[in-house]
Design goal:
Layout: E1 3-11, H1 14-25, E2 28-31, E3 38-42, E4 53-58, E5 67-71, H2 75-84, E6 88-96, E7 100-106, E8 112-118, E9 137-139, E10 146-148
Parallel strand pairs: 1-4, 5-8
Antiparallel strand pairs: 1-5, 2-3, 3-4, 6-7, 7-8, 9-10
């Protein structure tokens, strides 16, 4: 049965949020290596055993809130289920290279939640000529060249 696997806490000030959550709950919070500013949150249960974990990320939009991610065997299947049950997909299936795939949805009551599929073989689609992720490229209709959309 799918279950919550992790959570993401969007914050305005990483250091302030770290101080708050470490002081409040005693969570272990460490920066993860890589190009994305992501701080892993380690939690323990009342017996001191490792428990549900999450991450702190820099808030991109004011309305962003905590998102719980549910572990599923196939994001593709669950995206279809979400749509069939009246939900919406607000972030399509996205690879997290070497870790898995994620998608973000809204349920019928306007609650945001994430789907997570572990897959060590997850890779971003890349342009064969320059290596740039294809999700960040568009093809010009005029001359078929790629250009960055950001």
């Amino acid at each position: 049965m799918p279950t919550i696997t992790h959570f993401i806490v969007p914050v305005d000030d990483i250091e302030r949020a770290k101080k708050f959550y470490i002081g409040l709950f005693g969570w272990k919070i460490e920066k993860m290596p890589g190009p994305v500013e992501y701080y892993a949150i380690g939690t323990t249960n009342e017996k001191g055993e490792k428990s549900l974990g999450g991450g702190l990320v820099k808030r991109k939009k004011e309305e962003e809130t905590i998102v719980n991610y549910i572990d599923v065997l196939s994001i593709d299947e669950y995206i279809v289920k979400v749509k069939n049950l009246g939900g919406k997909i607000i972030m399509p299936k996205t690879p997290v290279p070497g870790v898995g795939y994620t998608a973000v949805c809204i349920d019928t009551e306007n609650n945001k939640f994430g789907l997570w599929q572990y897959d060590e073989n997850a890779k971003m689609k890349q342009c064969q000529s320059c290596g740039m992720p294809l999700d960040e490229k568009m093809t010009s209709k005029l001359d078929k060249r790629h250009y960055i959309t950001k």
